[in-house]
Design goal:
- This protein has 407 residues and is of the alpha/beta class.
- It folds into two domains: 26-220 and 387-405, Rossmann fold; 235-385, Rossmann fold, CATH 3.40.50.
- Helix content is 36%, strand content 16%.
- It has 13 helices and 13 strands.
- A seven-stranded parallel sheet has the order 3-2-1-4-5-6-7, with helices on both faces.
- β4, α3 and β5 (138-141) form a beta-alpha-beta unit.
- α3 runs parallel beside α5 (180-189) and α7 (249-259) packs across α11.
Length: 407
């Protein structure tokens, strides 16, 4: 796969000292805000690379919440006509907003002012068609895996009825949904696919995608914001992320309930979704603290001993970068990304393996010296491989490859 090998340190190169075959005018579109947390941070750091490189033509995004990149370079869709159907159920309204973003981006591409297009899976079918017609190289970022690969009990809306069996209005409304075939068609049209982990890449390889079409682009982390703190006096496991089954919260709770570790507690940092509430009730212990959603997860990560995150499906979970930057060993899965190597920065378990989660937590509880060793290795790994500088350097490599592929 183009890009650095997964475990090798990345040597950040300055754009001023290395000549690159970069675009002159990039069009970037994403159904997210520019600036903020989560995906909003990814979008901001992506635009930073092109803005500092002097080739950001325009970004089209849902909103803009930062001031470093001049507002005229960002087309914000915060006040959009799709709001008129905001009373529709979420899948329809969500799909309509994404398709509106795509329509706006396609119109920009049709002007002929841009020589590279970068967007996200599900956001860009019409735009990719225009890019292909105008021979503009294109990049699509994949937030998780191939649409057909690896998902476990994840429901996605599909159009169940044919056009002949529906009324005109119902057929129009159904057309707002994001169908599987839309994603698959985008994969084929894009010149380069950005994948966030080796597991994600494997879901494309299994479906015959050539290696040269895949580019490994892991996320980054702010190592000044997320940094080691004071180890607590007791063993404190922390789960950081939305409390949903996809992220394995029910497996964490059951494993914790089985263990009954002395002088230990579990912190749950993230929004509590309804699907988690029955498990909180079933496996509750008095040494569990539900913190809820916070805007400063680093405050809770750097007060903890270990991070437990047995997700069943991610692209590359940002919290694994954040926990590693805070020098926490992690009990996690290969499906959560590539930050943790088994036995080095943490312990890798299989998704849904409650026995393995419990055994890993018990092992770290018994061996504080291993906690210290793995934690130091985790901090070192992100500093050497996964800062936002590393991310931007890799991204420029991807842009250069896409431009060469189009020649």
């Amino acid at each position: 796969m183009p890009g650095e090998t997964l475990n090798a340190p990345v040597h950040v190169r300055s754009a001023s000292t290395v000549a690159r075959a970069l675009p002159r005018h990039l069009l970037y579109s994403i159904f997210a805000r520019i600036g903020g947390s989560g995906l909003d941070t990814d979008a901001f750091e992506t635009l930073r690379a092109s803005y500092r490189g002097g080739f950001l033509g325009k970004a089209i995004a849902y909103d803009n919440r930062q001031k470093e990149i001049p507002a005229p370079l960002i087309h914000s869709l915060r006040w959009h006509p799709v709001r008129l159907i905001s009373f529709f159920d979420r899948p329809y309204y969500y799909g309509a907003k994404k398709k509106y973003l795509d329509w706006i981006a396609s119109r920009h591409l049709a002007t002929g002012r841009y020589d590279l297009f970068h967007s996200w899976s599900g956001d860009c079918l019409r735009s990719l068609q225009v890019a292909k017609q105008r021979r503009i190289p294109s990049i699509v970022e994949i937030p998780t895996w191939h649409r057909d690969g690896g998902k476990v009990n994840v429901n996605r809306p599909e159009i169940a009825e044919s056009a002949s069996n529906t009324s005109g209005f119902r057929n129009w409304k159904a057309g707002l949904l994001l169908e599987r075939k839309r994603f698959v068609e985008e994969y084929g049209l894009a010149d380069l696919l950005l994948v966030l982990s080796e597991t994600a890449a494997n879901t494309f390889r299994a479906r015959g995608f050539p290696e040269e079409k895949l580019f490994y682009l892991p996320r980054g982390v702010d190592v000044e914001r997320f940094k080691p703190g004071q180890r607590p006096g007791k063993f404190r496991a922390v789960f950081s992320g939305a409390l949903i089954k996809r992220k394995g919260i029910h497996h964490v709770l059951e494993a914790w309930h089985r263990l009954n570790l002395p002088h230990a507690e579990l912190w749950l940092v993230g929004s509590v979704h309804d699907e988690a509430k029955p498990f909180l009730k079933q496996f509750w212990r008095d040494n569990i603290r539900v913190v809820g959603f916070v805007r400063d997860p680093e405050t809770y990560l750097n007060q903890s001993t270990v991070h437990v995150f047995p997700s069943q499906w991610e692209g590359s979970a940002k919290v694994t970068y954040e926990a590693a930057a805070c020098a926490l060993p992690q009990v996690t899965t290969r499906e959560a990304g590539d930050v943790v190597r088994d036995g080095v920065e943490g312990i890798i378990v299989r998704p849904r393996d409650i026995d393995a989660i419990a055994a890993a937590l018990e092992h770290l509880h018994r061996h504080p010296e291993i906690v210290e060793q793995m934690g130091n290795a985790a901090r070192r790994r992100v500093v050497e491989n996964f800062t936002w500088d590393h991310f931007r350097t890799r991204l420029l490599d991807a842009y250069e490859i896409a431009m060469r592929m189009a020649r």
